[in-house]
Design a protein that fits this description.
The protein is of the alpha/beta class and 776 residues long. It folds into five domains: 117 residues, Spore Coat Polysaccharide Biosynthesis Protein SpsA, Chain A, CATH 3.90.550.10; 140 residues, no CATH class; 98 residues, no CATH class; 141 residues, 3-Layer(aba) Sandwich (Rossmann fold); 153 residues, Rossmann fold (3-Layer(aba) Sandwich). Helix content is 40%, strand content 15%. Strands 1, 2, 3, 4, 5, 6, 7, 8 and 9 form a nine-stranded mixed sheet that branches. β11, α19 and β12 form a beta-alpha-beta unit. It is globular. The relative contact order is 0.06. Pfam families: Glycos_transf_2. It comes from Chelatococcus caeni. InterPro entries: Glyco_trans_2-like, Glycosyltransf_2, Nucleotide-diphossugar_trans.
Length: 776
């Protein structure tokens, strides 16, 4: 193939360099900067060649590397001659100059930088172009997608992938205030309009690294950037490559220069736009209350940290906000005559209250905020002698209060006692205790109340769940009543038990339900019965299946529960597993029915345009991930399969082009991914009442499970449609998936009616079962 090759003098620094004949106009110009990395350039060629959107020109800029090797790869890429433009610089002029040369040599409506070491999902261009061309995207100058961080090595001229993990999935908008703190998305995920590049004047060629960040800052002064929350870009890193290696990333190989030039970039940006600097700085100050300190900075630094390093700043910030909300509400619940008049001006905070509202209530109430265990008070006072002096003089209650009111905005370091547990344990996984990770009891956190049902008669009910047991914790979160989270591991101190008892008394609790059971739960039960006696009725609900008895711990806890029931410490014992009481004596004969989350109504829910199946499953045998993935890939009407875990090894057996790794998601991110799916697939080998199914139904998406044998719903049309008996046969499972996907897309109103009817029936039954079990 004879590809177009403009003549580019090595010493010409002008950005506008083009072919003698005008390049053909295309919708998108895809610019690839490369320098003697044939192995990676071949992968980039495959990534671009697989795009479902075809109206693009691929501009390859050989930045002083082996021209013949690069040309050979481009010519062998299989693209039409008029879709490829090859530029070669005799000497390397840097990444930003290469970008400018490639963009200037092409003609298009949109531009995207596809570096030679990154890659795309096949529908990246299709979806990003559709976004910017559609009514939602017309106000934006560009759009980013979420990404997958791919850690890899180069060995013996082969790419060895080591790990994949979600990247930047918390990003929902792109603000200049956030971008000033650091770049938080890679070029591979960013499609932008060419006129904005023209207006900026191109990439800053004076910067050897961080030019993409500088360009993004300039871009945001001219236009907004939208977010497409799908992981369509793959950001590849050779984390262990030596800095001299030609295959090393600029982020890794030039890591020292990134740190050195970060301040230079900020200063140069502000100097260039001195007339706009006040606007930029006021934007930072005006929105700092609404930003989560460290969240964006952590995202920007992710590429420079080891893959195993935890992101803790966002978790700490959420924990601080939740701690304030809980402290304010507890103070209001305990108000005395002395504080009653003052507190009348303050209303209890909602679970989703923001920082401005929480701090305002804290200042008005003048309540002392207890120092949480996740804040190192001594270290903060040692780091800040002025604060220590104010605390000693009685001017401040604590260093923690200073940090909340002032330190956050002054840039003072927040010393934590442990790293946040970012990748939370799923279902009944029980992580080993760690001295660096100490979980403490906490009442009524926003996360445990936000989607809870509010039903009269449950105001004096307290549910006790465990921080670490995700599935049971979520089932508890949606129940009506108060919530207490305790640690499953470690020690529950006597002071903790005493504080819990005081809180129970202050809230007027008369019924306690232990949702799941542990040694700490057992010790708390005995402590509460010792203090309150018959005045506090205690119950327990188990969420275990007998398949989990392979873990000896589960049988020990079952035996302990039966002993406490016979002793009279427990007034009732029930299960969410059908017929559990038919096997074990003294269980309440009824079935406890789980609630789905109580989410705001979103009106008529339409199925997504793309027919996709989402399988948020662990890789263990019980979750049956491989059969689920194979069944979904085999289904003829499924266009995309999304997973929380990558099915390692399956790529050698079947084509995984339709597979998308979205990673573990929680909260709003999980709900939104479910809502974007045609079907949530949960054909697992052992379940009680999977909360993921109920969360999916709450956002209007059907979820397929194996037989759950809940007789109360035997006649329910939705449950019949969403149940498959084919848990070890991917071919037959595929037929059931096709049937449910077709039902979702062929008659959306009928599907919505079935879901609405089922949830109304379920919630009424769940409320009645809890009331009967507790004898309310």
């Amino acid at each position: 193939m004879d590809i177009a090759t403009p003549s580019l003098p090595a010493g010409d620094a002008a950005p506008a360099m083009c072919a003698p004949q005008p390049a053909p106009w295309r919708t998108v110009a895809v610019v690839t900067r490369t320098r003697s990395r044939p192995l990676l350039l071949r992968r980039a060629a495959r990534s671009i060649g697989r795009q479902t959107f075809r109206d693009f020109v691929w501009v390859v800029v050989n930045d002083g590397g082996d021209e013949e090797a690069a040309r050979s790869i481009v010519e062998g890429a299989g693209l039409d001659r008029d879709r490829v433009l090859f530029l070669s610089l005799a000497q390397s002029r840097g990444m930003e100059a290469a970008s400018n040369a490639g963009i200037a040599a092409s003609r298009s409506e949109f531009v995207v930088i596809h570096d030679d070491d990154d890659s795309w999902a096949p529908d990246f261009l299709e979806k990003t172009v559709a976004f910017l061309s559609g009514p939602r995207g017309r106000r934006y100058g560009g759009v980013i997608t979420h990404s997958i961080h791919v850690s890899e090595d180069i060995r013996d001229d082969q790419v060895i992938e080591r790990q994949r993990r979600p990247f930047q999935t918390a990003v929902r908008d792109v603000q200049l205030a956030q971008m000033l703190r650091g770049n938080f998305f890679p070029p591979i995920s960013f499609l932008f309009r060419r006129p904005v590049w023209d207006e900026i004047g191109g990439f800053n060629e004076d910067l050897p690294v961080l030019g993409d960040w500088f360009f993004n800052l300039e871009f945001l002064l001219k236009a907004d950037i939208g977010v497409l929350p799908e992981p369509l870009a793959f950001y590849h890193h050779r984390d262990q490559a030596p800095v001299a290696n030609v295959y090393a990333n600029s982020v890794i190989a030039a890591g020292h220069r990134h740190g050195e030039l970060a301040a230079v970039v900020r200063n140069a940006f502000l100097r260039r736009h001195m007339d706009k600097a006040a606007v930029a700085l006021s934007l930072v100050l005006g929105h700092i209350d609404d930003m989560r300190p460290g969240e964006v900075a952590a995202a920007a630094d992710t590429a420079q940290r080891p893959a195993s390093a935890p992101d803790t700043a966002g978790d700490e910030d959420r924990a601080d906000l939740e701690w304030i909300i809980g402290s304010v509400n507890r103070s209001l619940a305990r108000r005395s005559l002395k504080t009653f008049v003052r507190s009348l001006r303050i209303r209890p905070l909602e679970p989703d209250a923001g920082w401005n509202q929480a701090l305002s209530a804290l200042q008005k109430l003048k309540a002392a905020v207890p120092v949480p265990d996740h804040f190192d008070e001594a270290a903060y006072l040692a780091d800040n002698p002025d604060v220590a002096d104010a605390v000693q003089k009685g001017e401040l209650h604590s260093g923690y209060l200073h940090f909340l009111l002032f330190g956050r905005f002054e840039g003072r370091r927040r010393p934590g006692r442990h790293a946040g547990n970012v990748a939370e344990a799923r279902d009944n996984a029980r992580p080993a205790p760690s001295a660096q990770h100490v979980l403490k009891p906490v009442f009524d956190t926003p996360a445990m109340l936000r989607a809870a049902h509010r039903i009269a008669g449950f105001e004096r009910v307290l549910h006790v769940a465990h921080h670490e047991w995700h599935g049971i914790r979520q089932a508890t979160a949606y129940c009506p009543g108060h919530k207490l989270l305790i640690p499953a591991d470690g020690t529950l101190e006597e002071a903790d038990k005493a504080q819990i008892a005081e809180e129970i008394q202050a809230l007027g609790i008369t019924h306690v339900i232990f949702q799941g059971y542990s040694e700490n739960a057992d010790q708390l039960l005995l402590s509460l019965k010792s203090r309150f006696g018959a005045g506090l009725r205690c119950h327990a609900i188990t969420h275990v299946t007998t398949a989990q008895f392979e873990h000896h711990f589960e049988m020990v806890m079952q035996a302990r529960l039966l002993i406490r029931l016979r002793m009279g410490s427990l007034q009732g014992l029930a299960s969410v597993k059908p017929d559990f009481g038919a096997v074990f004596e003294n269980y309440w004969p009824g079935l406890i029915v789980n609630f789905a989350p109580d989410l705001p109504s979103q009106g008529s829910r339409q199925p997504p345009d793309l027919r996709s199946v989402y399988a948020p499953l662990d890789a263990g045998w019980r979750k049956n991930m491989y059969t689920n993935v194979l069944g979904a890939l085999t289904a003829g009407n499924v266009e995309q399969v999304k997973t929380a875990n990558f099915p390692n090894g399956l790529e050698s057996l079947v084509n995984l082009d339709r597979l998308r790794l979205v990673g573990y998601l929680r909260g709003r991110d999980l709900f939104e991914e479910m809502a974007r799916s045609s079907l949530v697939l949960l054909a697992t080998l052992a379940e009680c009442q999977p909360m993921t199914q109920l969360e999916s139904l709450a956002v209007g998406t059907p979820a397929m499970t194996g037989p759950l044998a809940i007789r109360e719903f035997d006649d329910d049309p939705l449950i019949r449609l969403c149940t498959t008996p084919h848990l070890d046969n991917p071919a037959l499972l595929a037929r059931d998936i096709e049937r449910l996907v077709a039902a979702r897309h062929d008659d959306p109103p009928a599907m919505q009616e079935m879901i609405t009817s089922h949830l109304a029936r379920r919630h009424a039954l769940a409320a009645q079962r809890y009331a009967d079990f507790l004898a309310l």
